[in-house]
Amino acid sequence: MRHHILIPTDFSENAWSAALYALKLYAQEPCTFYFLHAWTFSSGSRTYVSPSYIDSLQDKSKEQLAGLKARAIIESTNSDHIFETIFSLDSLEDAIKFAIEKHKIDQIAMGTKGATGAKEFLLGSNTVTVIDKVRLCPLLLVPNNFEFVSPAQIGFPTDFNRGYGNEIQPIKKLADVHNSKINVLHINGKDKLTDIQNDNLEMLKAFLNDYKHSFNWMPEIGKKEQAIESFIEEKNINILTMINYEHSIIENFIKEPVIKKMGYHSIIPFFVIPHKN
């Protein structure tokens, strides 16, 4: 199965870090990588700007995109990796949505700093995140200068409050790529589960039956994000993955400074899967 991966870029090293991580994560997989640059021009004054000057700036960005593609081709070790570029005059959000639909993107890989990084959305004036804006496919947030290691251990915090369906597939696909173990985390004691939670726990066990996995229980002492940080360290988790339900634990991650800590200064990438009703 060919993966179609979108990599938004502002040509910063942080954006390149995300691209490099994606290249190494899928080094053995057939992939088409799309480098997307959403071009914008902001003038500090209302003075006239000639069309030829605008054209020259756009041409420079297009050249940078071509250079990025050439750099990725050199880095890739797989002849079944294809690289495409997308230059857009739309807003970043609209450009991402259009690219997802046109190119059947199944994952976004994004840095967590820079003009096109997650920080712009997470700390934007409307306090709305790209996680909530773009719910069409999973989003992989990669910390700056992250040194790639094969993700032998995947962390999956969940509250068992909802049943599991297609949103589990991206986690299983990720596990397939590196034969990873899926470490499920529930923050609270197993003996405190409701009947519904127990039913959902059994459902998740069935879904993961053919995969290496474990179920882990941590007491709710302090904030959930602190428990997750401890879990990452104790289990040597390489990628943290979560399902973005409405009114779920991930909303607290967005509203509280934990994304700042775990995203911008994180030791591991963060894989967010949108829940589709």
Automatic annotation (TrEMBL):
It comes from the Bacteria. Residues 1-143 form the UspA domain. This is Universal stress protein. Gene3D superfamilies: 3.40.50.12370.
